[in-house]
Amino acid sequence: MTWTTRPRCNLGGLAAITAGEGPLVLLLHGVGLRAEAWNAQIDALSARYRVVAPDLPGHGGSPAVGVERLGAYTDAVARLLDEPGLVVGHSMGALIALDLAGRYPDMVDGIAALNSVFRRSDSARAAVRARAEALDGQTIADPTPTLKRWFGEAMSPERAACESWLRGNDPEGYRAAYAVFSRSDGPSSASLRALPVPALFMTGEAEPNSTPAMSRAMAELAPQGQALVVPGAAHMLPMTHPDVVNAALLDLAADCLP
């Protein structure tokens, strides 16, 4: 898999990669990344579906405008939904996807939350907030600690791509997104119990922050929830384990899309 930049169009004020025809699949990336983080999923899903993968506000080619709360990101991506579809999110994108399902239920036929936090421990909450508070919005943060959390010490094309994206971020857009992410502890139990659609909660076995226990807990609360824990995987599932992710998403899409 290559992680080269793809052409974009403007959709609802966001820069977005679009591919394929058919029922809609919306892909939402995490903090500090960009739509190309979904390259493997775009290729696999666009053979059967219309795939839309935006740069979140303040990332890639999308401006950061009024994004000081999670709901602002949700509202921005909701404008891309011209029909109901499957909404897939990774990390912060998963939080947005779950918020979207709760606030715009008529536009969501199914949801996949990859590497989503849910009820962080006190120590994890303190750590992520400390990282957020260290960002000044003016200088590019050293990506080394982030890359170690995501990939360990191993070098790979995926790690190199993420390093390039992190170093190329707009510092204020990154600060704003990380601040929102650090304050977000996942969906409420009530919103999960109210999910009316098939919901997949997927994470890596070696994920220290968006843990397997979190995904299993969310799946237990959602009426049509299922959990999938990928052996040997950590945080960057869509990039490091694309075959497993693609198979799971294709199964979910076949279940919930016309």
UniProtKB/TrEMBL annotation:
Entry keywords, A to Z: Hydrolase
- What is an example of a GO molecular function annotated in this UniProt entry? hydrolase activity
Q: Which GO terms describe its cellular component?
A: membrane
Tell me which domain of life the UniProt entry assigns to the organism this sequence originates from: Bacteria
Concerning Gene3D superfamilies, the annotation shows: alpha/beta hydrolase
Q: Which residues form the AB hydrolase-1 domain?
A: 25-248
Q: What is this protein called?
A: AB hydrolase-1 domain-containing protein
Organism in which the protein naturally occurs? Seohaeicola zhoushanensis
